[in-house]
Every structure is written in C-alpha cells, then in structure tokens.
Write a structure and sequence with these properties.
InterPro entries: Beta-sandwich_Sec23_24 (IPR012990), Sec23 (IPR037364), Sec23/24_helical_dom (IPR006900), Sec23/24_helical_dom_sf (IPR036175), Sec23/24_trunk_dom (IPR006896), vWFA_dom_sf (IPR036465), Znf_Sec23_Sec24 (IPR006895), Znf_Sec23_Sec24_sf (IPR036174). About 25% of the residues lie in helices and about 25% in strands. It has about 625 residues and is of the alpha+beta class. The chain has a domain at about 135-210 and about 235-400: 3-Layer(aba) Sandwich (Rossmann fold), CATH 3.40.50. It is globular, with a radius of gyration of 27 Å. The relative contact order is 0.13.
Length: about 625
C-alpha cells in the first residue's frame, strides 16, 4: 500500500513545472513521414533555469557517458553487482567511479531517483581560483539635454547602490567621442578618449588602454588566487572596481559629467558614436574578463550618427529609415550598420558577455540594427519616451533588485541536448548562439540557430525560454516490437549565477513512440495546445524576419486548415458536423487571435481589429 501511495504521489507531481519543459506532442510518431503529417512540428519550449522548490540540488559534479557524453539520470539501467550503468541514449555500458561504490538499491545517489528528472549540480570550485563576481560596464550617452542626462545619471547611481558589494563596475560615456573612465585613479578624473568617426580594432583599444599583449590573459572561467578583488592587478583594476570601492568615485564623476560639449549645427543631429562606444566596452571586457560572465548596460538617447553603426545622417531633413525603406532597400546605412553590430555580437558571444539596451527617445535609436547583438547574447531591451518615464526607471531598477522580485540574472551559460537514436535537432529559436557542435543527432534542415547540438547562452534568467525543434531520421524503425519503446531527451544547462558559482541544470525526459499509421487517437491525446500556439507564434515570427515575401496570415490559415483536416471529424458539405477532440478545441482560437494580432498584421491594416474575435465556419 505504501508503494502504491508513493507511486500515486509521483504521478500527481507538477512535472512540467519542475522540468520547465513543455512539448507540442507528448506522444511521438515513429517515422519522419508520419511526423510531417502531424502539421504542428515536434518541438519543446524549455525554461533552462526556471526555479522550483522540488528541484534537487546536488553538491558534486555529474557523471557522464564515455561515448555520447549524456549525463547519468534516472532512466539509466544500473547493475549494482557489477557497479556499472547503461546509458539510455547510446546503450554504452559505463563503470561507476570509486566515489560511487557505496551505492545500492537502498542507497541511491540523487540523480537516480525516478522522481528527480531534473537535478541541479553545484560544480566544485577550482581551489586555485576565486569565484568570479558579477561584472557590469555602464555605457552612457551624453548627447542629451541636461534634464534627460540628469534622469539617466540618477538611475545609474541608484543601480550601483543596488549591486552586490563585490560586483565589478566599469564606466564608458560617449557623445562625439567615446570616453573610458579609469575608476581606479581616484586622485583625479582620468579618461581615455577614442575618436568617434572611425572604427577601432580590438588591438587598438587594448594598446590605447595599456592592456596590450603583455597584460592579456588566456580565457578562464574565474580568477587566479592571488588576484586582488577577484581580478589581475596588472592594469585591469584601473577600469573595473568593486562597487563598494568605486561608488563614491563614480558618484562624483556622474555629478561632474555634462552633456556633450561639441557644437551641433542648426538643423543637424548631435554627433553620437554609439557603435564606437559599444566596441570599446566589448574590447575592454574582452581584455579583462574573457570567459567570465559580464554585462554591458547601454543607456542610449538617440540614433547613432557618427562612425561605425551609423543609422542616419546628421542632417535633420533626412528622416530615419522606416519599414517601407527597409522593404525597398532604400535605407543606405542599414546593411552596413547590421554588419558592424553582427561583428560586435560575435565578439561578445566568444567572450561570454551580454549587451543590454535601454533606449529612451521620441525618435528611433537604431534598435533594428543593434538587435542582433542583443538577441545573440541574451540581453534585455527596454524602450521608453524618456529616462524620466516610469517604464525606464522601474525596469532599470528591477534589473538590479535582489530577493523575491529579482530577475535571477545569470551569466555565461551553455545548453547541450542529447537525444535518442532517430531523433534529430533542427535548431533553437531564442536568445542563444550556435556553438557549431556537429554530431549524429543534428538535422540537415535548420530552424533558427541550427547545425549544432550545443548553444551559447551569454545571458539568461529565470524566465528565459527557448523553443527547440526536432525531426526524425528517415530510417526510423516501424517494426512491431519497436512501437512501445521509449524515446529520451536530455537538456544540460551550465551557467554562472550571480554569486559566481558554476551550476549545471540537467533535465532528462522520456516520451513514448506511437504508431500513427494505425490510429491517431493516442497521438492527439498527447497534444499540448498552449505550447503549440507558442511554437507557431515563434516560428511565424522567424519566418517573417528571414523569408522574403512571407505571408504570415496565409501560412497560419493553411496550417490550421491542414490540422483540422487531419484530426477533425466531419461529413462533407455539412459544416455543422465538424468536431474536434477536446485536446484540440482551443488551438483554432489561439491561431485566430494570433493571425489578427499586431505581431502578424501590418499596423496599417488593423482598422477592423475592433470586431469581436469569434470563429465562424463556412466551408472545408
């Protein structure tokens, strides 16, 4: 009876909440052909570090399979007599190391308990290194009126006061030129100036800052034991100081900081070198803390008009590019600016650093060009009319708050996915970048960030969500004996938390193969309508961005028609006979609201949006 009660308790657990994974289909067709007939793709929405009180914390490193590198989990077959385990992904037999020799049927390690499909390992720290603190480099636009600049400076002061005392802080201001402030030189204000009208290379940045090859270090995941305040004292501590040590200096610096003093001709925009400033900040972090989690927090008050990343000329008679200009290829600065920010994105991803953008202006500031750097690194974007607006002030404060309302910002993460044989990974949609890790479980067709089974997550938080798309091998088995076999998926997220600890979240799931060639009844019972709606919305958004001439509403309509035709029940020429299984009834409503939303429709065509959102069937 006790065993039955325990089993019932396990079945009642909130598995989706614990694992942070929801799938479009919870029962999978066995073949590639049958999967294509499902209409809605095989996909999973995952929250890699979603918090839940029932997630087991383990204070040791995970054990991996010597062949496929999947980690030991509750679905592994264990031979306690021979002290080995069989990997459920590749079926390779692995021997337990010596520190596992005390395990038995009644003395299991945490990762082997069936109720712990998700566990989080706290990786042992390197005794020769100090855990790295969080790092923030603030980049402030000074091409603003005094009132706006005052709001921005006030927000910065508040943010620095909210940071942990050991958090490292750097500061870059920019206008016509970019200024790197040496916070470690407290006797007077010492600034390194970079011209804003031309691109500067990483080597030029390092040489000018005195951080050339003699001061550079190899990428590490932490700091040497002898480093002062957690970093090398060979010049780096001039620019990045603990918040507790530089708060007073930075307050004085911000009090003295004025709007950009370079004259602006009548009828012209200020000379704003946003691109150079971000490039300098990225170069500074790359020299000081490569491979360690850090964020560049940029406060921008207008469009870039000077140097690399320029999106508009200085002449006010020249309007900022519109969607129509982009469609007609009539935006002369756009492609060059996107190419520049793409290079910044690749540099930041290689370094493991994040770009956050807080833009406050009545006009556009160039988010369309800069978004590649923000998206690739998992950064945040907040747009508002003014730095004095509550949207900016509340959002900026929320970013640095601790406790219950904390965003749970984490750094320098990676995601790896392991799959059963015959399952292929097409790609991921979300704030990540491909690590180009090829393998037998990588599909030929690509959706989003594909051609890999591992991704970089420079920045992630407790609400980060990724959509993973799967495909099946064309050689999937259809033998009767194979129909009841289980499939397995494993998601491994390694990251650095705000305390500098290295963690590894491991989620291992199993689902069942079904023979859809015989009947679709079982398949439909495993359909998740809400997840399917999210996946379709993300896929539509991706197609709108990447496919020229893509008609989103038409594609959504056709997809819904195909789904209803496949799984609906009706008599020909009798609309009243149409019915859907309870597992599918909400999905058409989700799609109907999506196709009429502002995410899909052109804003100029929304004059009829006030009409009641009600479905009417006319024909099939």
């Amino acid at each position: 009876m006790a065993e039955m009660a325990d089993k019932a308790k396990v079945e009642e657990m909130d598995w989706e909440g614990i694992d942070g994974v929801r799938m479009t289909w919870n029962l999978w067709p066995r073949t590639k052909v049958e999967a294509s007939k499902c209409v809605i793709p095989l996909a999973a929405s995952i929250s890699p570090i979603r918090r839940h009180p029932l997630i087991l914390d383990l204070p040791y490193a995970p054990l991996d399979c010597k062949t496929c590198k999947a980690l030991l989990n509750a679905f592994a077959r264990v031979d306690f007599a021979a002290m080995n385990w069989v990997c459920p992904f590749c079926y390779h037999r692995n021997h337990f190391p010596s520190h596992y020799h005390s395990i038995s049927e009644i003395n299991l390690p945490g990762e082997l308990y069936p109720q712990y499909t998700t566990v989080e390992y706290t990786l042992p720290p390197d005794p020769s290194r100090v855990p790295p603190p969080p790092v923030f480099v603030f980049v402030l636009d000074t091409c603003m009126i005094e009132e706006e600049l005052g709001y921005a400076k006030s927000a910065l002061k508040q943010a620095i006061g909210l940071l942990p005392e050991n958090a490292l802080v750097g500061f870059v201001s920019f206008g016509t030129q970019a200024h790197v402030h040496e916070l470690g030189f407290s006797e007077m204000s010492k600034v390194f100036v970079f011209k804003g009208n031309k691109e500067v290379t990483k080597d030029q940045i390092l040489d000018q800052l005195g951080l050339g090859s003699s001061s550079r270090r190899a990428p590490t995941s932490g700091f040497s034991k002898g480093a002062q305040n957690g970093f090398q004292s060979s010049g780096v501590d001039r620019f990045l100081l603990p918040a507790s040590e530089c708060e007073y200096t930075l307050d004085l610096l911000l009090d003295e900081l004025q709007s950009d003093q370079w004259p602006v001709q009548p009828g012209h925009r200020p000379q704003r070198c946003t691109g150079v400033a971000l490039s300098v900040a990225a170069g500074l972090l790359g020299a000081c803390l490569p491979g360690t989690g850090a964020r560049i927090v940029a406060l921008v008050g207008g469009p870039c008009t000077e140097g690399p990343g320029t999106i508009i000329s200085k002449d006010l008679s020249d309007p900022v590019r519109s969607h129509k200009d982009l469609d007609k290829d009539a935006a002369p600065y756009y492609k060059k600016a996107v190419k520049f920010y793409d290079s910044i994105a690749k540099q930041l991803v290689a370094q493991g650093h994040v770009l956050d953008l807080f833009a406050s202006a009545l006009d556009q500031v160039g988010v369309a060009e800069m978004k590649v750097a923000v998206e690739s690194t998992g950064g945040l974007v907040v747009l508002s009319e003014s730095f004095g607006h509550s949207v900016f002030k509340d959002s900026f404060k929320r970013m640095f708050e601790d406790g219950e309302h904390s965003l749970g910002l984490c750094f320098n993460g990676t995601l790896e996915i392991n799959c059963s044989k015959d399952i292929k990974i097409q790609g991921v949609i979300g704030p990540c970048s491909s690590l180009e890790k090829k393998g037998p479980n990588v599909a030929d067709t690509v959706i989003g960030e594909g051609n890999t089974s591992a991704w970089k997550l420079c920045g992630l938080d407790k609400s980060t969500c990724l959509t993973v798309f799967f495909d099946l091998s064309s050689t999937g088995s259809t033998a009767p004996g194979a129909l009841n076999q289980q499939l397995y998926l494993q998601f491994i997220t390694r990251y650095q938390n705000s305390e500098g600890k290295s963690l590894a979240r491991v989620t291992t799931l199993t689902r069942q193969w079904v023979d859809t060639a015989v009947s679709t009844e079982n398949l439909v019972q495993g359909f998740d309508q809400e997840t399917a709606a999210v996946v379709m919305a993300r896929l539509t958004s991706l197609k709108m961005e990447t496919e020229e001439g893509f008609d989103a509403t038409r594609w959504l309509d056709r997809t819904l028609i195909r789904l209803c035709s496949k799984f609906g029940e009706y008599r020909k020429d009798d609309p009243t006979s149409f019915t859907l299984k309870p597992y599918l009834t909400l999905f058409p409503q989700f799609m109907f609201n999506l196709r009429r939303s502002q995410f899909v429709q052109d804003l100029r065509q929304l004059c009829w949006m006030w009409l009641p959102l009600q479905l009417t069937r006319f024909f099939y």
